[in-house]
Amino acid sequence: NAGVTQTPKFQVLKTGQSMTLQCAQDMNHEYMSWYRQDPGMGLRLIHYSVGAGITDQGEVPNGYNVSRSTTEDFPLRLLSAAPSQTSVYFCASSYSGPEGSTNYGYTFGSGTRLTVV
Amino acid sequence: GQNIDQPTEMTATEGAIVQINCTYQTSGFNGLFWYQQHAGEAPTFLSYNVLDGLEEKGRFSSFLSRSKGYSYLLLKELQMKDSASYLCACMDSNYQLIWGAGTKLIIKP
Predict the structure, then answer these.
(1) Which of A30, A41, A59, B105 is most buried when burial is the number of CB atoms within 10 A of its CB?
(2) Is B33 near chain A, with CB under 8 Å?
(3) CA-wise closest residue to A38 among A110, A115, A117, A92
(4) Could you give the 3-state DSSP secondary structure of residue B6?
(5) A89–B contact, CB cutoff 8 A
């Protein structure tokens, strides 16, 4: 099925460990983004990309790195995990960014539930 | 600062009508989105409003008043499957999305 695929669905890390959250889409969307969702808070943008080779920081980028070597893939790397990074992470894509998502919105992946102990 | 306010939780009865409000203060305004998110799942797009007024999509309608910084999502003929969180998000002058914390809607039989 076409859409956004995120892996893994669940992950437990120890403080200081690193890991990569994978995100892939097969809709030829130029815009991809990573959000974190915490209880009682709105979705917060971590990093985003408007096309292959282009990335930029969102609202809460510290502790995270991204790269966009292909249109399809947009991995999120946690450099040294901290308990404050315990959250649910969503990857979202659209054809051309927020302003281009007014007809169909973003397509979100199913999320990664990360716990850092 | 930028702020989106929604009620944390609402309860309604199957078959009834419910209105979920969203008020916003943003740096500029380029439209407002509503998304539905079932527990443990991804958000899915419901609607987008940029002009004042009501837009209807089946059982769901969304209203916007730009002068009041206010929107609501109206759900009619409620079904049990409508139990979910409803997220309001505004697009600011830089075309960035500012998200509300969401309203958890509980439907009772």
Answers:
(1) B105
(2) yes
(3) A115
(4) coil
(5) no
**Closest C-alpha to B95, from A94, A72, A87:** A94
d(CA B86, CA A21): 26
Q: Which residues contact B30 (CB under 8 A, 6 or more apart)?
A: A99, B50, B91, B92, B93, B95
Instruction: Please list every residue in chain A whose beta carbon sits closer than 8 Å to the beta carbon of residue B95.
Output: 97-99
Specify the residue for token string 């409000």.
Answer: B21
Q: What is the mean pLDDT of chain B?
A: 96
Strand-strand pairing, B70-75 and B44-49: unpaired
- Under 8 Å CB pairs connecting chains A and B tally to 55
pLDDT, residue B21, reads 98
Q: Could you tell me if A74 and A32 are in contact, meaning their C-beta atoms sit under 8 angstroms apart? A: yes
Contact state of A104 with B50 under an 8 Å Cβ cutoff: no
- Chain B residues close to A44, C-beta within 8 Å: 99
**Which whole number is the average pLDDT over B50-63?**
96
Nearest-CA distance from A70 to chain B in Å? Answer: 23
Using DSSP's 3-state secondary structure scheme, residue A72 falls into coil
